[in-house]
Amino acid sequence: MGVVLAALAGCTIPGPRFEPTPTLEKPAFGAGRGVGELARPPAEVLGVLGDALQDLKITETSRARDGLDFRINARTEDDRSVQVTVKPQKGNTRVACRVGWFGDEPLSLAVIERIGVRLGTRPPAAIPETPPSRPAPNPFFAKGAPDDEMIRNFADAPYRGQVVP
After folding, report:
1. In what order do the strands lie in the sheet with 33-38?
2. At residue 115, what are phi and psi to the nearest 5 degrees?
């Protein structure tokens, strides 16, 4: 037994490495908002959030706490609202971002990505010259028809009760 221990004295036994998963899932977009989960405490995420928003030319306007959740309100350069929610999730932090009324997928996901870059959980990336953006269309208004076509029958009718063919 002593011979075996002497032979193993200078050896290292390989074993599994337990490193925290820096990013638990790739950020996803749905229902007008981007959602991602980071393996960092909320305090660290909140610490880098302001810098991540500034990287994308978004100005923070207010912060509020609702129980364990944090809500950060901000404005884009083109004056759209941005709401970022930070929630603790069993040792991790879930970040959700909504831009504008109907969502902006590239910009919402870019905010979550920049938070990861600032935390060091994602590979370093250059700050974009112009933030990625593609505002979602307004689903409540018709598209494709010009205004004069949309209101043609209303303008031609002498009174409301008349049916215009």
Report:
1. 23-30, 33-38, 92-99, 81-89, 69-75, 59-66
2. -60, -45
Residue 139 lies in a domain: no
- CATH code assigned at 51: 3.30.310.80
Residue 92, judged by CB atoms within 10 A of its CB (0-12, 13-18, 19+), counts as buried
What does the block give as tokens for 40?
């960092």
pLDDT in tens, the chain (165 residues): 445 444 445 545 454 443 444 445 688 888 888 999 998 999 999 999 999 999 999 999 999 999 999 999 999 998 999 999 999 988 899 999 999 988 889 999 999 999 999 998 888 888 888 888 888 766 666 555 565 565 555 555 555 565 655
Does residue 37 form part of some domain? yes
- For residue 162, being part of any structural domain is answered with no
Tell me which residue range forms the domain holding 55.
23-119
Cα 3 to Cα 7, 9, 12, 13, 117: the distances in Å are 6, 10, 17, 17, 51
pTM above threshold 0.90: no
